[in-house]
């Protein structure tokens, strides 16, 4: 850690604290993700997965990992510093998240997902808080602690307790352990809808409520639109009141036809019928007016930060001083 100096706190990742730091060799601002290590168990599996995934994935729309170093009994991941998240952009009332900007963010997200999936990696925790914005206004996928290798030719079981609840695909809510890359696409559909409405599409407080909200909005699934429904582990554990669902024009009243068509072809119960990232990038959503916003017209992270709640700097002074001594 002699090459780095911690200068502030940047936030909390799913598996560790994230600090803003300075690379003393190049006078460059970096992000330092600190992950505590249990001496008896070694480096956590999620940390190893994130390191391996980031080392394998070099793309414009995926966060860069510069170095892995140690600090006392912790591992420190040194990554590019990305000042804010898409979640903060969505919540910022002073930011005009218009359709051209939504299109540009969506395209950047899909490019990152497409590259990840083409390299047989599924993220499994795509959400606005894990989509970070660079100083140059580029969206980048971060926090790959739940990422796993996916091989369609290998019958492999995965944990269904993945993805943040609001962005969790329905097959996961029903306990599936044989899902595929389409779980990431479900999250993408939820995020596009959230950018349009400025609020989460399926904000459940428990797994059961989450599933109930999805079914009430999209309608009760059938064997016709979800052939594997009755094979899901938790299908018979709970019954919901039958629902015809809501019209997409009611769910997203401000969205145009192309936006609705893209979202409804991603948010399908049958994961095998959801658009892939590559297919979604070819959708008319990106080719019809209004055109995508140019990068210089995208929200400025500094403006987002200046309008966000601030931390009490004194609260972190002692921990930062202690860490810089280590």
Automatic annotation (TrEMBL):
One term of GO molecular function: ATP binding
> Keyword Metal-binding on this protein?
no
Q: What SUPFAM superfamilies would the database entry show?
A: Protein kinase-like (PK-like)
Q: Which reaction does it catalyse?
A: L-seryl-[protein] + ATP = O-phospho-L-seryl-[protein] + ADP + H(+); L-threonyl-[protein] + ATP = O-phospho-L-threonyl-[protein] + ADP + H(+)
* Every Protein kinase domain range: 4-286
What's in the keyword line of the UniProt record? Answer: ATP-binding, Kinase, Nucleotide-binding, Serine/threonine-protein kinase, Transferase
Enzyme Commission number: 2.7.11.22
- InterPro entries with a match to the protein in the record: CDK, Kinase-like_dom_sf, Prot_kinase_dom, Ser/Thr_kinase_AS
Q: Which PROSITE patterns match?
A: PROTEIN_KINASE_DOM, PROTEIN_KINASE_ST
Query: Which Gene3D superfamilies does the record match to this protein?
Result: Phosphorylase Kinase, domain 1, Transferase(Phosphotransferase) domain 1
Q: Which GO terms describe its cellular component?
A: nucleus
- For the keyword Membrane, the answer is no
User: EC top class, in one word?
Assistant: transferase
Family assignment from sequence similarity: Belongs to the protein kinase superfamily. CMGC Ser/Thr protein kinase family. CDC2/CDKX subfamily.
Q: What is this protein called?
A: Cyclin-dependent kinase 20
The lineage is:
Eukaryota, Metazoa, Ecdysozoa, Arthropoda, Hexapoda
């Amino acid at each position: 850690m002699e090459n780095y100096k911690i200068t502030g706190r940047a936030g909390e990742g799913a598996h560790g604290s994230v600090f803003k730091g300075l690379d003393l060799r190049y006078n460059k601002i970096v992000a330092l993700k600190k992950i505590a290590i249990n001496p008896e168990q070694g480096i956590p599996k999620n940390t190893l997965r994130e390191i391996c995934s980031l080392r394998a994935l070099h793309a414009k729309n995926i966060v860069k990992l510069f170095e892995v170093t140690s600090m006392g009994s912790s591992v420190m991941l040194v990554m590019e510093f990305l000042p804010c998240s898409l979640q903060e952009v969505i919540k910022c009332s002073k930011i005009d998240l218009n359709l051209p900007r939504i299109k540009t963010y969506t395209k950047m997200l899909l490019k990152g997902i497409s590259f990840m999936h083409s390299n047989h990696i599924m993220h499994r925790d795509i959400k606005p808080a894990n989509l970070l914005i660079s100083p140059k206004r580029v969206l980048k996928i971060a926090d790959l602690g739940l990422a796993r290798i996916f091989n369609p030719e290998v019958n492999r079981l995965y944990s269904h307790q993945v993805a943040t609840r609001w962005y969790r695909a329905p097959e996961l809510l029903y306990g599936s352990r044989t899902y595929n890359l389409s779980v990431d696409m479900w999250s993408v559909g939820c995020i596009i809808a959230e950018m349009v409405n400025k609020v989460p599409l399926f904000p459940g407080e428990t797994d059961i409520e989450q599933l109930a909200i999805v079914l009430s909005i999209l309608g009760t699934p059938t064997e016709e639109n979800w052939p594997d429904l009755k094979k899901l582990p938790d299908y018979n554990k709970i019954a919901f009141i039958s629902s015809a669902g809501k019209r997409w024009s009611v769910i997203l009243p401000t969205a145009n036809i192309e936006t609705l068509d893209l979202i409804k072809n991603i948010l399908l119960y049958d994961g095998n019928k959801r658009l892939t990232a590559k297919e979604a990038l070819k959708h008319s959503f990106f080719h019809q007016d209004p055109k995508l916003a140019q990068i210089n017209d995208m929200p400025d992270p500094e403006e987002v930060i200046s309008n966000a709640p601030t931390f009490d700097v004194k609260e972190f002074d002692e921990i930062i001083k202690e860490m810089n001594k280590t």
